[in-house]
Amino acid sequence: QVHLVESGGELVQDGGSLRLSCVFSGAEFSTYTLAWFRQAPDKEREFVASTTRRGDKSWYSDSVKGRFTCSRDSAKNTLYLQMNNLKPEDTAVYYCTASMWTMGSATVGNYEFWGQGTQVTVSS
Questions:
Q1: pLDDT, tens digit, for every residue of 81-90?
Q2: How far apart are CA 23 and CA 15, in angstroms?
Q3: 57 vs 48, 60, 87, CA distance in Å?
Q4: Taken in order 53, 64, 79, 101, is the CA torsion positive or negative?
Q5: What share of the chain is helix, strand, coil (3-state, %, to 5)?
Q6: How does DSSP classify residue 26?
Q7: What is the signed CA dihedral for 87, 92, 97, 103, rounded to 10 degrees?
Q8: DSSP string covering 36-89
């Protein structure tokens, strides 16, 4: 059973930076596509970024493209999300997710395993 644990979320000022981490366990890391989603209060969960099994290609939502970088470290079984130039509209709970079957998907239902989330709050 895949287990995902996110960390790194905190309160940061407008224009600041954060790096989120997601530790993967319970299966072979290299066989899963990994992604980040986020959910703001009273809004649906939305796609942020994803990366291939080898980490050689990533996809981003238009709202974060150019500001966020998604990467993975196979030696540490960890997925990262580097977030720069943060804005108040980035405030949300950020979730790490994994799929053995999909690649680059922005659809919540295509991912089999989810972490518990980490809160990111950007103050104006």
A1: 999 999 999 9
A2: 26
A3: 14, 10, 25
A4: negative
A5: 5, 50, 45
A6: S
A7: -40
A8: EEEE-TTS--EEEEEE-TTSS-EEE-TTTTTTEEEEEETTTTEEEEEE-S--GG
pLDDT one-digit tens code per residue, 57-106: 999 999 999 999 999 999 999 999 999 999 999 999 999 999 998 888 88
Nearest to 96 by CA among 56, 40, 51: 51
Q: Is 93 left (phi over 0), alpha (psi -120 to 50) or beta?
A: beta
User: What residues contact 124, with CB distance under 8 A and at least 6 apart?
Assistant: 14, 88
